[in-house]
Amino acid sequence: MPRLNLVVLGKQGAGKGTQCKRLAEAYAIPHVSTGDMLRAAVKADSPLGREVAAIMDAGALVSDDLVIRLVDQRFGEPDASRGALLDGFPRTILQAEALETLLGEDGIKLCINLDVPVSLVTERLSSRRVCQECGNIYKDTDIEAISGTCSNCGGDVIQRKDDQPEAIAKRLEAYERDTEPLLAFYQERGLLVVVDGAQSPDEVTAALVAVISERGLA
Ligand code: ADP
Ligand code: ZN
């Protein structure tokens, strides 16, 4: 079985995290989210975490070097030998080029753009709450958000600092400036597919599974 390396692109709030968790389970490949990895470092108060905390709270990007090293290390772990579902990486052209170098010939099989209009992601992000332990995502109206307790793991359910209005605007700007150029990058390589991320979560999952099977990837 060839390695299944998939890149999922999409604005903040497009549903990358939710869909990647489902696909990771369905295809038994790890969900590699640089955002989750960085947040774990912040929570653990490690030297890396202390270095990136303020940058992340403000909604700015951490350095290419730092995330490339993080992903390189992650690829060295045994479960990544089957492939990876990349969420939040690459998000600059420099990172995309570094990823090609890291993966060599057995490279990216597909890049999925989860496409959602700005108005909808803004609404989703402001009402988003997350479990600090397992990363499960809730809405502000869900019982888990109201009680502050995750029904999956019992962890604290909070609002991310970067899900507050000023940071949301900043992140969407960074996406447009730094990450949207990646659409052309993967298009040129014949790897880009667009999936409508405005559908319900189950409809999006079904569309993703269909694309992966149409391409004969799993
Ligand atoms: P979102 O896409 O919703 O902003 P993520 O969880 O993917 O959230 O990332 C949270 C933060 O972590 C980003 O705002 C940024 O500061 C940092 N980060 C994550 N991935 C990268 C990356 N590939 N390059 C630079 N910074 C990153
Ligand atoms: Zn949890």
Task: Label this structure with key terms.
3-stranded antiparallel sheet, 5-stranded parallel sheet, binds zinc ion, Rossmann fold, 218 residues, binds adenosine-5'-diphosphate, globular, alpha/beta
Concise summary:
With 218 residues, the chain is of the alpha/beta class. It contains ten helices and eight strands.
Describe the protein's topology:
Blueprint: E1 4-9, H1 16-27, E2 31-33, H2 34-44, H3 47-57, H4 64-75, E3 83-87, H5 93-103, E4 110-115, H6 118-126, E5 128-131, E6 137-139, H7 143-147, E7 157-158, H8 165-179, H9 181-188, E8 192-196, H10 201-214
Parallel strand pairs: 1-3, 1-4, 2-3, 4-8
Antiparallel strand pairs: 5-6, 5-7
Helix pairs in contact: 1-10, 2-3, 4-5, 6-8
The site of zinc ion (ZN) has 8 residues, from loops.
Order of helices and strands: EHEHHHEHEHEEHEHHEH
Which CATH architecture of the domain at 4-116 and 176-214? 3-Layer(aba) Sandwich
CATH superfamily of the domain at 4-116 and 176-214: P-loop containing nucleotide triphosphate hydrolases
Find the count of extended strands (DSSP E, 2+ residues): 8
Residue windows where pLDDT falls under 50 for at least 5 positions:
none
Q: Strand pairing plus helix content: what structural class?
A: alpha/beta
Give me the side-by-side strand order of the main sheet.
2-3-1-4-8
Integer average pLDDT: 94
